[in-house]
Structure of Carboxypeptidase regulatory-like domain-containing protein:
Amino acid sequence: MRRNVQRQRSKTRSITSTVQVLLTLSGVVLLVAGLVLAVSGASVGSAFGAVNDEWNDQGWGTDGDGDGGGTAETDEETDVTDGEDETADDDGTGGSDEDGGGDGNDGADSGDDEQEDDENGSDDGDDSDEQDGVDDGDDSDDEQEENDRYALTAFVEDENGDSIDNATVELEDEDREVHTEDGQAEFDDLADGEYELVADADGYEQTRETVEIDGDDEAVLLTLASADEDETNALTVLVEDDDGNSIDGVAVELESTDDPLLGSGEQREAETDDGLVEFEDLADGEYEITAGGAEDEYEETREMVELDGDDEAVLLTLSEAEND
């Protein structure tokens, strides 16, 4: 009887030990499986969170299909999360850690969204500021161009550097005309560009000059050349004897030696008065002067003279003719 009882007790203990071992192994297996599922669930939750954020950023969540898709994903994510929580609760381990991890991921996703919003806001602000700055700059440039006006001063002189008063200076492009005072004429309120100046005065040849204004006042010197006129010269002939005494009543002939086809070929004759003869209104050129002769009781004398823009004077010395 005792043996049977002992055998029964031994058998019961063996069965109890076996059951405990199996339960322990089952617990270990369930714990490992729970941890695996928890890790997998956190990864899946993060992935679904990123997709959902991208979906909302693109604005797809406003459509009917998008709402359905977003709801399905949210439900699926909720199911996965609930499963993870239940597994963690059944195992008795890691529940709070997994929830904390999930909250951390959600926080990271929220931070990413806020950063993207900040970047978009920053870009919009920069674009607006830059655009406003460009527009303001263009308006400022237009106003600056309208206000940029300059003065052009013309100084009018002759070939000797003397100022010419009352000369006419015309600004052809602007159809404006000014008369010089102390040789100066001024035009104001001119924009950038090229201008044609024309200056003229009595007794002078007209001259013109192109002047460019480029962001500053300008000054220009206009030199007027004397007008070409038929200028004439005077020739004075003094006739004396060998002793230096003036001879009156002596005939003096003047003849141009220039080719008649090229020059005047002029001939003149006059008698001395107090030893002097003056010929006026002579053109430039070479002339031959002849004085004396048998009739004047003086030997004939010839002299060449050239007139070139200035009056001239010539001395002729006559010697008494020898009697045969």
About this structure: The longest strand covers residues 298-307.
